[in-house]
Design a protein that fits this description.
Length: 287
């Protein structure tokens, strides 16, 4: 009968593991090579790569861009089966430059500087370190305020839209009422109510947040909060900034649904917000 956790074998495996851990963190290649089975059957599963055979493992160690590893070990469990087999499991916290990495894919920001810093946009240049030690420099991040957009429905099931010129695209297009959360807004819904009122003159007592989106997680740092407002009523004239020129357009909800695939909207966040609203209204179903 196989003996589980013979104290002498557990002590032997524990000493070997601690020797490996020290060699790993200090990138002692000679010790690690001596501890690993050097054979084509070896498989190493990594965070960003899988390695097959002793040669690939050895080559990976020799060429790691960040050879030294900082980590804190916890819950080390060693189970031995007789004298010739054992498993070693553990948990660890990865520490890079004194900072804990919560997700093994997260990058660490080593330094930042602003290229542009303005009220509506800031452009930040980051120097980052990937989990495998690769340095990414520069990586540009666009900093924007939090955004809101509103799908507003009248009691007659008409969607409130705004027609305005968008200089980036150099086109006049239809959009949902939308805008930015400002410093005085305690909650995004306050910004949604203000933007709907200012851009269309409509308001409601029935606002529901339907979803939160990232405009572009690759290089935008902000989020967009999507709202559905029902039973909206016209209560005021437009209150526009000096750079805004807007026509308010009311379209039946069914017509919006029928024409959404025909390019009636070009703003991707607004199409996503409309999807959230239609789902909330029971107009979108999944089988």
């Amino acid at each position: 009968m196989t003996t589980i956790n013979d104290p002498t074998v557990v002590a032997e495996v524990t000493d070997l593991y601690l020797k490996y851990e020290k060699a790993l963190c200090n990138n002692n290649l000679e010790v690690m090579d001596g501890l690993f089975w050097d054979a084509p059957e070896v498989v190493r599963f990594g965070i960003t790569e899988n390695l097959y055979g002793g040669d690939e493992v050895r080559n990976f160690r020799q060429n790691r861009p960040n050879p030294k590893i900082e980590r804190e070990i916890s819950n080390l469990k060693i189970v031995t089966f007789g004298k010739d087999a054992a498993t070693v499991t553990l948990e660890f916290r990865r520490i890079i430059n004194g900072v804990e990495r919560f997700n093994p894919f997260d990058w660490i920001v080593l330094k930042s500087r602003y290229i542009v810093k303005d009220k509506w946009i800031s452009i930040r240049s980051d120097t980052c370190q990937m989990p495998n030690g690769t340095i990414v420099d520069p990586y540009y991040v666009l900093e924007y305020p939090t955004w809101v957009n509103v799908v507003a429905l009248t009691k007659n099931q008409e969607v409130i839209l705004v027609k305005q010129y968008r200089h980036g695209l150099r086109k006049t297009i239809l959009e949902l009422p939308s805008g930015a959360v400002e410093a005085e807004d305690v909650l995004p819904v306050e910004a949604a109510k203000r933007e709907l009122l200012e851009e269309s003159g409509y308001t409601s007592n029935h606002f529901i947040e339907t979803g939160i989106l990232s405009p572009n997680p690759a290089n935008h740092n902000n989020l967009t909060h999507c709202f559905l407002a029902t039973d909206v009523e016209h209560v005021a004239d437009l209150k526009l900034d000096v750079t805004e020129q807007i026509d308010v357009v009311l379209l039946p909800l069914q017509k919006v649904i029928e024409n959404i695939g025909q390019g009636i909207f070009l703003q991707t966040l607004h199409i996503s917000s409309l999807f959230f609203a239609l789902k909330k209204l029971g107009k979108v179903q999944f089988s």
